[in-house]
Amino acid sequence: MELPFHEGLVKALLAIKIFAMGLSMPIKTIVFTSIRKWDGDSHRIIRSSEYIQMSGRAGRCGKDERGICIIRNDEQMEMNTLKDMVLGKPTPLISTFRLSYCSILNMMYRADGQFTAEHVIRNSFYQFQYEKEELVEYHKLILDIAQLEKKMMSEIIRPERVLYFLLLSGLLQKFCNELKSRLRVLKKLGHIDADGVVQLKGWTTCLIDTGDELLITEQMFNGTFNDLDHHQVAALASCFIPGEKSNEQIHLRTELGKPLLQLQESTRRIAEIQRECKLEVNVEEYVESTVIIFFKDVIYCWPKGATFAEVIEMTDRFEGSIMPLSRRLDEFLNQLRAAAGAMGDVYFESKFATSSESLRKGMFANLLYQ
């Protein structure tokens, strides 16, 4: 439905919340038929951040002078509630910066000695937020001291106060220690040499930003994908797509049993290497959280001709999440194709491209014509 709507063949689109929040198309007017949603416990009015995200689809810069948003009147809603929803504050922007092997390798490969990893950390939004929060506390303390002039000196010289502000530099030290540990991991796995020069493995990892980049690169270099057909490749690749936890009972297919066991063994090995390099890694938890196997049967069977009704019986995931996960898998397969090209491996490049094409053709054909 997205393509006909994007081309202007469909003039109006009735969309659920998930689809409405993810649309990136030339839309001029949005109509809310209801501003209540089911959150698993009760029907509630949508939050301000949800309203801003969905209403923000209306009007595109350079195409429309304005966007129009229409809300169907709800007699049970009070005016103050409506104002809070429309004029409320958006969700605060909170940094999720973390050191990953992909980011470290990209800094080493692309920076060309212009700046260090410590420079990037020190100038990151994460460090800025951390220092800002501490400075707010610091200024509040100064005001308190001004109001309590008699106790000012005793407050300033208390050892715990001094230690509190010394912790400002603790975040940078924490990241530096983590960086050293991750560099040791990269050396052990052959992504960089003893002099810190990025090797072929490292170049390949730079192109992967989905799932566990180290584990994925290992599978490309250790031959896990070699003997798999394009359906098996797509199914195995789906194990790297992040998703919600599932209580589903796993039944391994014969076609996927051996490569999945190889994948789990590699995951365990990488976890043990990271622990040896002083990173805080629980091996069993790492294996369980890194290899997501609840989606593989859907991906293996759907492009081979299974109907949508059949594949939703293969997983306990909500049916509305299957298509978004499939799209993410398609993007990931194209990342693997690009990584194979960086390796100079034409065979792998073709295999990942075929898997991606088969996934798209199989799913959309079976969805449209069943």
TrEMBL record:
Keywords, sorted A to Z: ATP-binding, Helicase, Hydrolase, Nucleotide-binding
GO molecular function, one term: hydrolase activity
Keyword Secreted (UniProt): no
GO cellular component annotations of the record: nucleus
Domain of life according to the entry: Eukaryota
Record-level GO BP terms: maturation of 5.8S rRNA
All copies of domain Helicase C-terminal, residue ranges: 1-113
Keyword ATP-binding carried by entry: yes
Identification of the protein by name: Helicase C-terminal domain-containing protein
Native source organism of the sequence: Kingdonia uniflora
